[in-house]
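Field: COMPLEX_INPUT
Field: COMPONENT_COUNT = two
Field: RESIDUE_TOTAL = 717
Field: MODE = joint
Values follow.
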Amino acid sequence: MNTSSSNLKKIVIEPVTRVEGHGKVTILLDENNKVHRTLLHVVEFRGFERFIIGRPYWEIPVLVQRLCGICPVSHHLAAAKAMDVIVGGEKLTPTAEKMRRLMHYGQMFQSHSLHFFHLCSPDLLFGFDADPAIRNVIGVAQKFPELAVQGVMMRKYGQEVILRTAGKKIHGTGAIPGGINKNLTIEERDYLLKDIDQMVEWAQSALKIAKDYSVENLEKVIPFGSFESNHLSLIREDGAMDLYHGNLRAIDAQGNKIFDQVDYQNYLDYINEEVRDYSYMKFPFIKFLGPQDGWYRVGPLARVNTADFIDTPLAEAARKEFMAVTDGKPNNLTLAYHWARMIENLHSIEEIKILLDDPDLQGNALVVKGERRDEGVGLIEAPRGTLFHHYKVDENDQITMANLIVSTTNNNEPMNRAVQKVALDHISGVPEITEGLLNHVEVAIRAYDPCLSCATHAMGQMPLEISIVDCEGRLIDRKSKR
Amino acid sequence: MSETITFTIDGVEVKGKAGQTIMQAADGNGIYIPRLCYLEGCEPFASCRVCTVIVNGRPQAACTQPIAPGIVVENNSPEVTQIRKDIVEMMFVEGNHFCPFCDKSGNCELQAMAYRLGILAPKYPYLFPVCELDASHPYIFIDPNRCILCGRCVQASRDLDGKHVFDFVGRGPHKKIRVNAAVRLADTNLDITDKACDVCPVGAILKKGVGYAVPVGQRLYDKEPIGSDIESKAK
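Field: COMPLEX_OUTPUT
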């Protein structure tokens, strides 16, 4: 960071909402308040990759899910998939795979619903600059009570699915190496079927809100924090969106395939991570493109962009509408994440409905094991994007190496770019920082659905602070939302 | 026929047989006295002290104290409960007990005891001991982080299996369980069918590769608290 050669002022946003920890944004301004540089720092150090060393491999799916209280199922399943490889059980029984898929779609449904209704809807419904006293979930509940109830009930439904597949709504134990520890009883199935049609209907109405907002505000949506990027996700062998399993596909901003159908056991041949001195979060990139050109987006926007089709009818129709906006080319708009997220939400509840009618869920063949291996990689499409878990295990069954590339890490560079774009468009040259200005920065980050925002923004108490400090450390101005 | 002895537990008159301990007599009357080191079929040796009761005004270990005519036993009084809570809390802080990912969770007697006694968080400072796992055995692994030094494995190996795989070493705060080999469990004659592999009340001695096979909701203490099996005899 070069601050010595000019009279740069530093704006620090600390903390910003982020996954399971703290982050901050630094914006450097010159003497005319023009943005010189922006940085998104992740200042929280977790250490999971280190302290699980030595633990027995079967503990890992239960242990590492503690990374997150919002999407533990994603870590649980990614680790379980890696351990499937370790025990030679990656070809799961139909019951085990479908139970895991059901768990995962339930997770996707609750997480996407939580983000849309609790976190981002206040911005979309009231405006980025609206009075913060109403621009929160309580404001939504007061002005749009039916919508608020839908959000709560949709999230609850997803959690009920998780409860019946993982044993607990948060931090369950369902997935074990080589399979699952329970099937779905008829009573559990019937309980979930009771409300399924209502959930599909509400998922459609949520999708309509996201779509209408995007279409009706295109002038605002197109430039807001947007930029061209590569996109990466898992993809099914036939090119369909698959949130649970598949091979890796990466495309560029125009939709050209960078690589396709890559077995993720070989991800290290394709993905590398760069370390920068201002953040504990690494910067992944496509290896042969290098860190400058190889960074990519993950998550709902990337997945809808990379998929050739979605194999559930309502979500596929929605995908076609979404892609029509960009004439079939990848959509590179940051705010389009919301629309894409609601397409996935609809897809997830459609998948749940299909699965609940599948008698394989009542099967009793739960676990398979085969040739023991000493290394395994598990990938899954978590709500926030592609999640990598990679482990090595010694002959005593103890973990010797762990490498986790979590969804938000994959989106590190895109979030930095989004912050920079918003700062350039909305902060540069502005003499006084307003609360609405702070929220513009947050909106750009929030589009990527960082986990921690739920604990703060959802209550309208986002502990965001911006300080303007000159390059000699003198405080010039400070605004706080505490 | 053994002589019948009458005494009271928490003011209720109960009967036992001469030669029984207070715990045995209480069990027979459907009264649960908490315990962690007691192992059916082995000689009790009052290691954990969780079964402490107050007998005629003096704390005694119920697993070793014989009954006597007319004794007055306090088992469920605030004072006794506090003694037990303190003992169990000390067990928690002496080790590294991370219930959230322990595969004994839900089947763990220490965890169940904490729930039963209403322990929310220990008041003592954690010691965070540094412990190394012994995963050398092909079927069994030892996690000393979770050991509460109850001695069940020592007793079971010696008295039930006729082996000597485990034993105590050191005294006081330096007391540990060690295996009867130069370094590793793999160098002992422990077999997966040994009783010693099944008696650990916590997750210190576990079978490999089978963790979490029982879903949440179906584990031993998911539905009823520890001791319910004994208390059901009184109903």
